[in-house]
Amino acid sequence: MAAKKLKSNRGFNFCRRFSIAGLLLFSVIILQAQSTERKRNPYNLKIVATKVEYKNQVAKNAQMEMVDLEKLIPGIVLDIRYATKNNFTGEIIYKEPKAFLRKPVAEALKKVQDSLAFHRFGLKIYDAYRPYAATLRFYEVYSDTNFVANPKYGSRHNRGCAVDLTLVSLSGGDEIHMPTVFDDFSEKSHPQYANLPDDVIKNRRFLFSILTHFGFSYYYSEWWHFDYKDWEKYPLMDLSFDELEK
Fold first, then answer.
1. How many domains does the chain have?
2. Residues 56-96: pLDDT tens digits?
């Protein structure tokens, strides 16, 4: 009888130790998940971070859809710098060289491309929708908010309502002369900078005129950055390109 009781106590103690270990492991997993979430959203912003939430929003409002620009706009050229090391971070930020924008923004950009064709020009895209995680990383590398969005507020790129671009010639595909290269963080990149050759100023003016005609506005410190109207109606997002494609 005593032996049975001892066995029973050992079994009970084993189960209790197993339960405690399980609870500790569960607690560690929860803490790690919370830590990861804080890292992804340290300012507790309202961010769409799951595909389920994104799909639900699109089901309620088709305008929320993220559109693949290559599929919508024939002939558009992509030079997604953050999918390479050829960018100001020196790191590969995106796993894929893709460009997405909200449906109304993408459709407006298609109209830009169609209009440019008359002038024998086309669009080259450097960046479009940008996951919030990338904005966090950019700010860690370079915290000048004249050129890099403050993650405390998020970026219009995170909303799928901003695009970085330039013009290319349809005949040869060469970039049209602009004030600077992409992501040049100097005063020369400012839209009002005037100490430039006449042809460069003319090209910049043409770019601004056609983009603004179709609902875009240029950014005060970057000639290549354009925001679409009503950007504030769209939520910040932190979904990868792969998640958007599935």
1. 2
2. 999 999 999 999 999 999 999 999 999 999 999 999 999 99
Half-sphere exposure of 82 (CA within 13 A, CB side): 20
Q: What is d(CA 161, CA 102) in angstroms, rounded to the nearest whole number?
A: 6
Q: What is each CA distance from 128 to 5, 80, 156, 191, 196, in whole angstroms? A: 69, 9, 9, 19, 27
Please report whether residue 138 resides in a domain.
Answer: yes
Q: Which of 197, 174, 154, 182 is nearest to 80 (CA)?
A: 182
pLDDT per position as a tens digit, 170-218: 999 999 999 999 999 999 999 999 999 999 999 999 999 999 999 999 9
Active site residues: 222
Tell me the Cα Rg of the chain: 25
Mention every residue, 6+ apart, whose C-beta is less than 8 A from residue 13.
none
Residues spanned by the domain of 29: 1-36
Indicate whether 16 and 100 sit together in one domain.
no
| 84 assigned to some structural domain | yes
Q: Kindly tell me the burial class for residue 87, based on how many C-beta atoms sit within 10 Å of its own C-beta (0-12, 13-18, 19 or more).
A: buried
Domain membership of residue 41 (yes or no) is: no
**Has residue 171 been placed in a domain?**
yes
